[in-house]
Amino acid sequence: MGKSIEQVVKCGDNMNDIICWWSGGITSAVACYLSIEIFGIDRCQFIMIDTKNEHPDTYRFKKDCEKLYGKEIKVISAIGDKYSSIEDVWEKHLSLNVSYGAICSYQLKRLVRERWEKENNFTHQVFGFEFESKEFNRAMSLKMNHYKVNAIFPLLMFGYTKEKCIEFFNEKNIEVPIMYKLGFRNNNCFKTGCVQGGIGYWKKIQQEFPDKFNNMAEVEHRITDRKGVPVTMLKDQSNKAKEQGNQLVFLKKHPDYPNNKSLDDMQGRDVKPLMECNGFCGTNDFNEINETDEEIYYQYDMFTETI
Question: How far is 295 from 245, CA to CA, in rounded Å?
Answer without folding.
Answer: 20
